[in-house]
Specification:
heterodimer, A: about 325 residues, alpha/beta, Rossmann fold, 2 domains, four-stranded parallel sheet, 9 helices, about 25% strand, B: about 260 residues, nine-stranded mixed sheet, two-stranded antiparallel ribbon, binds flavin-adenine dinucleotide
Amino acid sequence: MNNDIPVFAEQRGDRLHSSVPQVVTAAKALAGQTGGKVIGLVVGATAGAADALDKTGVDQIVTVADASLANYNALRYRSALAGAISQLQPRVVLLPATFMGRDLAPRVAARLKLGCATDVIGLGIGGNGGLDVKRPVYNGKAFCHVTFPTGKTAIASVRPNTFPASTGPGGAPRSAIAFTASPGDDRATTREIAKTGGAVKDVTEADIIVSGGRAMKAEENFKIIYELAAELDAAVGASRAACDAGYQPHTRQVGLTGKTVTPKLYVACGVSGAIQHLAGMRGSKVIVAINTDPEAPMVKVADYAIIDDLFKVVPLLTQEVRKLKAH
Amino acid sequence: MKILVLIKQVPDSTTNVKIRPDGEDIDRAGVKMVVNPFDEFAIELAVQLREKRGDVASITALTAGPATAAEALRTALAIGADDAIHLQDAAFEKLDEIQTAAVIAAVVRGENYDLIVRGKQEIDLDSGQLGPALAEMLDIPHVGAATKLDMAADGKSLVANRRIEGADEIVEARLPALLTIEKGLVECRYPSLPNLMKAKKKPVRTITSGDVAGFAGIVGSVGGTEIHKFEPPPQRPPGKVLKGDASETVPQLVKLLREEAKAI
Ligand SMILES: Cc1cc2nc3c(=O)[nH]c(=O)nc-3n(C[C@H](O)[C@H](O)[C@H](O)COP(=O)(O)OP(=O)(O)OC[C@H]3O[C@@H](n4cnc5c(N)ncnc54)[C@H](O)[C@@H]3O)c2cc1C
């Protein structure tokens, strides 16, 4: 085992996932402690994202490229990543805690019999020399530390939008690892990637989310939410009450039984902030509440709150943001 | 088709989480325990498969947990599982997810389940590792966080959607396979009182570490993470509440978001 920290540089269609440069930041800090290198590890049909990865300041780029890795496939990708880890023998492997990273990390850990922690928000090397990470539990109502045994590689996935993106001059040396699919990896295949939601961004891929609650009262009233979202280049979210009432599809539901999001800005319009809703968005960097009730829980957790009728505030806000952008 | 449903008993989502003075766990006194909501979807899915198809021979619920977790199994039996397996031993309680997956794999390997289902994550530790890890230990394909499922008529394969960034990944997998369930795939029913009564008569097999051949070797060779030092989340600094006419508060908000929070 060496002191290097490979980062799984998730790519889809040759595009580097936006959370990868953030994970590189976490890896660099950790490499400062272990004294190893940060290796960007690209898996796919081609190493299409390698150039973008090079600009994140990784020390080295390793690619595992094979036509059969064109789309994410839990079996093939675990074979590719586990194979690379066996070859590299690193101290720690980091993945982004994306849909892909969450799915892949435990499976790779199980294959290599390693320990794994998901969705971590802090990383360090503990007193015993093993990885020590911090992660949210109970839907963000508490944090805990997870410590790893020494003497074997540790695997962790890092929560998006926790660390700033890393940049670097580029020019990292590149090498390739051959891919050997395990027999039986064709027992699952990705048939298709079907776009959902049309032109509108999904809440899990947006830096800003504008959310509407029961107070929207009707599907057509969400028009003002969409207008604000368009101005902010944001995704539209909704509370369960709004989804259950049919104002928005359940794919937009944020919360315990909806999606967990950690955007840079979350604007909650007429959402009371029930504990199950907070569970899905309390990790947001900045929270804005627009609510008529100063006692609403969302107002209590918000960084900024406007106590007023959303039907008055939201259109004005759209105008103000538009003015700002015109400058 | 033999179906195995993995469930976990967790604190109710409305629990006011308090941390024990030694920081090694949350304070569990008086905490209401429920079936992990995502695992409820898993049970429901299994029961719906039986209702829709003629080939579901059995549905078994399995949990690893203390004696009180029997309640969660009873809920699963009342919703429609036929029998249950309870891994119950103090030696199981400190295992991490990878170790737990290895133990469950050792217990169920010979049973040849065609389909294993579980929620996409547990709402206590939020880790989501057990499903994919168990699939790996059993060397079967898995589809994580499925939102839609079509089982082939011949029961030999499935097609499942999983939600990714702005799209659905549509995955075909041959059985035996493991699925983890995202909200939206099924609507849960509540167990009826007569069914809760009937559930009491359904068989529950208890398994201790002594029943798992080679237990020490199994858990000693995999995983090995430990959880320590629970802490409350950092207090957010008190927010700014803007009151007054919208013609004033809205420009004020935009200015704060731009200059103070640097969020837009
Ligand atoms: C097991 C379980 C899981 C759940 N999962 C989720 C989940 O994933 N996501 C989720 O969101 N909920 C979830 N819930 C439901 C949750 O408990 C709440 O019922 C729900 O979040 C409430 O939605 P809301 O805030 O839109 O509605 P309400 O609670 O009715 O709040 C409406 C808010 O709008 C304000 N308001 C009214 N009129 C105006 C106006 N004109 N201008 C401005 N403000 C106005 C009111 O003051 C109020 O604060 C779950 C519940 C359970 C039991």
